[in-house]
Each structure stands twice: as C-alpha cells, then as structure tokens.
Amino acid sequence: MIPLRAVQLAAAALLLAAFTRSALTGLSDPGVALVFVAVIAVGERVRVTLPGDREQAPIGAAVALAYALLGPLRGLPSAHGVLQAVAVAGAGTLAGMVRLPPGRPGPAALDAAARRLLTVGFAATLFQPLYNSGALDRVPLSGPAYGGFLTGVAALTALCDATLAAVLHRGRTGQRFTTALEDELHALLGIGSAIIATGMLISLLAGEVGLWALPLFCTPLLLAQASFRRAAAVRATTGQTIETLARATEIAGYTPVGHARRVADTACALGRELGLGTRELALLEYAALMHDIGQLSLVEPVPGGATALLPQPEQQRIARLGSEVIRRTGVPRQVSQQVARLADPCCRPDGSNDRSLPIAARIIRVANAHDDLLTAAHGRGLSGPAGRLDALERLRLERGRTYDPRVIEALARLGPRHAPRGWPDGQG
Question: Keywords for this entry (predicted)?
Fold first, then answer.
C-alpha cells in the first residue's frame, strides 16, 4: 500500500516542477490561465463536507479538470500543456486555501489538494500531449468521436481520483483499502459524476463559446452543491440528536459517564477492522451510542450500568425496549433493528451460526461487554494492559456462543492501537 506521506510528497514535487517550469518559460495564454485560477480559488472557498468527513470542492475540482482537458478555446487551439495545467490547478487551490484570519489548513484540506493535483496531472498527461502534438487531428477525432475520446479520458480520471481518495482515506482512518475504494466508487454516482461531467462539458463547450462556458456549467453544479450542503446539515442535526439521547442514560444515572461514547468508539474501530463501509460505520455509531436507551424503562438501575453481566433474557428485553424508543425518534430504521438484536446470541440452539444477526449487533455487543468488563476490572484494581487483557480473556471464554469469534479476534488485533476516550488512567 502506498503510504499517505508518499502521495503528499508526490503532489508537492509535481507542483514544484509545474511552478518552476511556468516561472522559467512563462504562461501560455496568461489571461485564460488567470481566469481559471480565480474560478478554482472561488470553488475552493465554497467546499462541502461529504459523508465520512470527506471534504470536496466540486466547482474547483471540475474547473481544474476542464483546464486539464481544454483543447480549442473559441475555435483557436490552446497550448498550455501538462505542467501549466498542474500549475493553474495548484495556484487556484492554494489561493482558495488561504484563510482570514490566517490558519493552518486541516489534514482533510491538504489531502484534497494533493488528490486534485495528482488527478489533474493524470488527466492532462492523457490529453495534452496528444492534443498539442496534433495526433488527435491525424486520427481524426471530430464531432462525436472527440466527445467520446474526452469521455474515455474523464472515466479513467474518475478511477484515478477514486483510487487516490481511497489511499488517502485509508492513511487517515486505517480503513481497509478495498472498502475505502468501494466507498469512493459508490460516491461517483453522486457528486463525483457531476464533477467529472461538468469538467468535461466545460472543456467541450469552451471550444465554441470560450470562457462563458465556466459560469454556464458551474451554476448548476453550485446548486447541486447547495443540496449536498443541506443534506450534510440534516446529518449533523441527526448526529446531535443521537448524542443527546445517548446521554440521557448517563444523566439519569443508569450508565457511567462516557460509556456510550466509549462503546461507539470501540464499535467503529471494530467496524473499520472488519471492513465496513462509510454508511455502515455511520449507522453502527448511531446504534452504539443509543444501545443502552432501553435502560430508562428499568425501575432500578443496573449496578454500574453493566448490562453485559445481566441474564440474557433481561439483556434482550432491554434491547427490545430501546429499539422501540429509537423507532420513534426519526433515526434510520436500521439503527432500531440493530439495537433490537444486539443481545441475541450469535449461535442458534443447535450450534449453527445465526446468519440473520446483523454484523452491527455482533460488534456492539462485544464493544459494550468490553467496556463493562474494563469498568469491572478497574474496580478490582486492574488498569492499563492488565485490564485490557483481563477483559479480552473473559470475552474469549464466551466466543462462539455469546460473542462472534470474528469480532473478538478483531478486538484482539486492535490491542493498544485503540484507546477509547474517557479512561484518564489509560485503562482503555
């Protein structure tokens, strides 16, 4: 797997080469280049956050791609080449990342910038040498054939962009590369396809109407971006509602402070280790945060909130009651379904694996029991590695019956890499 740092260094080296070449030889059609720089910078300023905390600047990305694929401009041939395309994309991106007041760009913004530069360089390498050498005229490619050629280049560019995004996402989160790539390819059906299509159409239309192609096609993309921004706001509100509900059991004294958050952190770490995608991880986190909501129906709190130490029928009753509460909150129905099953054993009475039990329910049950056992170990004076080892061994005694062996082994692989928030003495 390509290291995260290698991707960033490759982007930095490419940008340095592009700036050096532009400084030594000058810009081809500098006025056109500056217009593209300005629009890319504006697009960078109005970026949007997509599911999985991925930052994207749809307008900036589409316009940068359009410049990489720019052939004739209002009937006249362009001659900017690969490195100038990278220089323009880099200058626009850097200008858009400048903040007032000054501040250091976050990791997500730096990842997005590196990804854009390498993607633009890839697209320009596929197109510009063939166009500038006249090879496209000798084929010949005109009319629908030229559009088909650009479509092919755009499709390959989309695959390159998805691969880079998956590499960067894996480097930041530790998610499996194949799972991250699957998420990125799925995202192409949404804003990704709009970015690629807009960039390709701008480059095509610029041959007839010139720079007027920029506002003509950027406006619909801006409206689409506004829709994504509203959807992101809805997701944020849902997340805040779930966090508030999750704290209800803590405020009422039914569970220890921070228990729901620790269980959610552990569950998400296990989900990534087991290859769950971005949407599955989001639903898993929601269910893990609300897994104890059924305890509010109890007359007397469970000592220490440790439901994992209760008889199984009582655990199942609490889970079903919690599921009914969740079903009435407007949270995605998968969350209530996962909570309803989280106390069910992973094996049927005949010893066979219960394939109907959701993987999220299996994960949350292990994560919840792990935190309950860590709390119990802490009460016995075991902390740090000793407490983790004690909890893991107790879970292993019940694997294959109460707990899914795959999840238990995933927890063992996490080891010291995972430390849930809320254990000041390093118990987690």
Answer: Membrane, Transmembrane, Transmembrane helix
The pTM score is: 0.71
Average pLDDT, the chain: 82
Q: Where are the alpha helices (DSSP H) in 101-212?
A: 107-132, 135-138, 144-173, 177-187, 193-209
Cα distance between residue 243 and residue 181, in whole Å: 29
Bridge partner residues of 73 (DSSP): 76
Beta-carbon contacts of 397 under 8 Å, excluding residues fewer than 6 positions away, are none
Burial of 31 (0-12, 13-18, 19+ CB in 10 A): exposed
Structure tokens, 45:
């300023």
Residue 234 CB burial class (10 angstroms; 0-12, 13-18, ≥19): exposed
Query: What one-letter code names the amino acid at 325?
Result: V
Task: Give the pair of three-digit tokens for residue 141.
Answer: 């490619």
In tens, the pLDDT along 63-103 reads: 999 999 998 888 788 889 899 999 999 999 999 887 644 55
CATH 1.25.40.10 fits 252-417, yes or no: no
Only one residue has tokens 């969740």, namely 326
Domain-wise residue ranges, the chain = 4-232, 252-417
CA 145, distance to chain mean position in Å, is 36
Provide the 3-class DSSP secondary structure of residue 378.
helix
Confidence band of 212 (pLDDT split at 50, 70, 90): confident
Selected residue with higher pLDDT from 39 and 227: 39
Say which residues have a Cβ less than 8 Å from residue 207's Cβ, sequence separation at least 6: 71, 72, 73, 74, 75
Looking at the DSSP assignment, which residues form a beta bridge with residue 56? 48
CA distance 195 to 185: 14
**Other CB atoms within 10 Å distance of the CB of residue 251:** 10
Contact 360, 283 (CB under 8 A): yes
